[in-house]
Design a protein that fits this description.
Layout: H1 15-26, H2 32-39, H3 43-52, H4 55-59, H5 80-95, H6 102-116, H7 123-127, H8 132-141, H9 155-160, H10 163-180, E1 188-196, E2 224-232, E3 241-243, H11 246-254
Antiparallel strand pairs: 1-2, 2-3
Helix pairs in contact: 1-2, 1-3
Length: about 260
């Protein structure tokens, strides 16, 4: 179950409380039902732990309980160390711009389990990939991972962003700042985005079963215009402005 919600408080009583209740039964000779009612424990649960508790735990006042309380952890295919290696691999693949999709992660996990000769559910060999429930639990167990939509990054940009080029950039920046003594009001940062000249239609209510549903726009394919805005290090900003293509702008002037 991917989204389990606890409906009872079973298995949430601490081991210290159960040990104190077991001492009342074993050392003081009280009945199990009366002690269970006093400590708000199911009497059958207290009976089971009274049989588990050792003599050292009953006699020692400051003895730490040696038994565990609560439901057992679900059986995992990978150990914590094996799963951590898989997490580090996925992070490394994402850092070098070769992140894996959820389906690719499921296939990789199945191959990883086969390489380690681990016992896997029957559906894994049948589909040659891990199950969707396992992947959901894997993401929940590792909050450092998330499903993100990546930005398209060219190979030239990815390879140019390295330690040598970054160091060269900051060295040149330091030389320019020292040479010309720029003030914060002289340093501007410009960011841009693309705006199309054709409106994107919103979703409409149409006849069920029709594959093609149209909506009126100024054109089917428009021109991409650059929208830019600049902000200085002192906090000053310019109004957003459009940057048109030079060839189109010249044709407009001729008309």
């Amino acid at each position: 179950m991917r989204n389990f919600k606890r409906k009872t408080e079973r298995g949430k009583i601490s081991a210290d409380v159960i040990l104190r209740a077991a001492r009342q039964v074993k050392n003081n000779g009280r009945s199990i039902r009366s002690v269970a009612a006093e400590f708000n424990i199911n009497y059958r649960t207290l009976t089971r732990y009274c049989q588990k508790v050792s003599v050292e735990e009953l006699t020692g006042e400051n003895t730490v309980p040696r038994f565990s309380v609560g439901y057992q952890r679900n059986r995992q295919v990978f150990t914590d160390q094996q799963e951590q290696l898989l997490v580090e691999y996925l992070k490394k693949a994402s850092d070098i711009y070769f992140g894996l999709s959820p389906k690719a992660v499921r296939k990789l996990s199945y191959q990883y389990a086969c390489k380690l000769e681990l016992a896997v559910p029957a559906s894994w060999p049948e589909n040659e990939q891990a199950g969707a429930d396992w992947f959901s639990a894997f993401i929940k167990r590792n909050p450092t991972l998330s499903i993100r939509k990546p930005e398209a990054t060219s190979l030239s940009r990815a390879t140019s962003f390295n330690e040598v080029n970054v160091k060269l950039f900051f060295d040149n920046l330091s030389d320019v700042l020292v040479r010309y003594a720029f003030q914060p009001s002289d340093i501007w940062n410009v960011d841009e985005t693309g705006v199309t000249t054709v409106q994107r239609p919103d979703k409409v209510v149409a006849r069920r079963g029709h594959k093609q549903v149209g909506s009126m726009t100024s054109a089917e394919r428009g021109t991409l215009v650059t929208l830019a805005v600049a902000v200085s290090a002192a906090g000053n900003s310019t109004p957003p402005y459009f940057v048109f293509s030079s060839s189109s702008f010249q044709r407009t002037l001729r008309c």
